[in-house]
Amino acid sequence: MKRLLFTTAALAAIWSVAAQSRTETCTIQSALLGREKTCSVYLPDGYGESERLYPVLYLLHGASGNHTDWLRKGKAQQILDEAIAEGRAVPMIVVMPDASGDGERGMGPRMGYFDQPDWPYERFFFEELLPAVERRYRIAGDKSNRAIAGLSMGGGGTAVYAQHHPELFAAACPISALMSVDDGRTRHEEFAASVRATSPLERLERLSDDEAEALRTVRWRVDCGDDDYLWEGNIRFYTLMRKRNIPLEFRMRDGGHTWRYWQTALPEILTFVSTGFDR
């Protein structure tokens, strides 16, 4: 068994080294925000030589983070390379946008994925960022080849974005999601107010039949650790979705609100979204 584990690890390392994927920073001048915003972009092995169009995953970071978190802390490039090389995920482009604030450690004013006074970030995401990156890179650019996922603050952003625009996403995968400001540990009132105003839980409680039907066109997967302080909001989200007969996969695994947990969640998410892409 030890020899088998060593061999598997060695092969994974070889695949990772051999893969010619790359990451780069994409800068977008935003008229809505009045400044430049950046995102990290993962381009799979073969992107430079092929002419094909690729599916895309938008991967959102958490509070006190930025667009580099999934690469630096989450080992996203290595995880993607290995999942694609092993056939557990299809080659895809991954866009990691920046939603950090202007204060210390990326917190403070203008943090988050939702509109705030004089800071229409959600409008920026859909009206400027998404069209810009899908023009710049060879992205298929249709619902059946577009997915979204994120952790913590980005998990809440994932749930809300897919609720607001189910026509754009084939799959949505909140991880350890901040579903309610009551779940969070924030002293930043503008951020808290933006979370309250977009609560995915409250939206589920007042869904019309047509809105519920639209959410059924999205493949949902929710993942949260059993020791995560945000567990209650994630379970409530699952319960409300089930009550409205909106299918979803729900996983509560051993772990907390940590990068170790999110690193184990990402491979399963890559397989989940790959299964639904129209390749």
Mind explaining what this structure looks like?
With 279 residues, this protein is of the alpha/beta class. Helices cover 40% and strands 19% of the residues. The chain is built from 10 helices and 8 strands. The chain has an 8-stranded mixed sheet, with helices on both faces. Strand 1 and strand 2 form a beta hairpin. Helix 1 packs across helix 3 and helix 3 packs across helix 10. 41% of the residues are buried.
In short:
The protein is α/β, with parallel strands linked by helices. It is built from ten helices and eight strands.
**Looking at the structure, what is the overall shape?**
globular
Task: Report helical residue fraction.
Answer: 40-55%
Distance N terminus to C terminus? 36 Å
H/E element order: HEEEHHEHEHEHHHEHEH
Keywords:
about 280 residues, alpha/beta, 8-stranded mixed β-sheet, 10 helices, 8 strands
Layout of SSEs?
Blueprint (H helix, E strand, L loop, with lengths): L1 H17 L3 E9 L4 E9 L12 E5 L8 H4 L3 H10 L7 E5 L23 H16 L9 E6 L1 H12 L6 E5 L13 H9 L2 H6 L3 H7 L3 E7 L5 H13 L4 E6 L5 H18 L3
Parallel strand pairs: 3-4, 3-5, 5-6, 6-7, 7-8
Antiparallel strand pairs: 1-2, 2-4
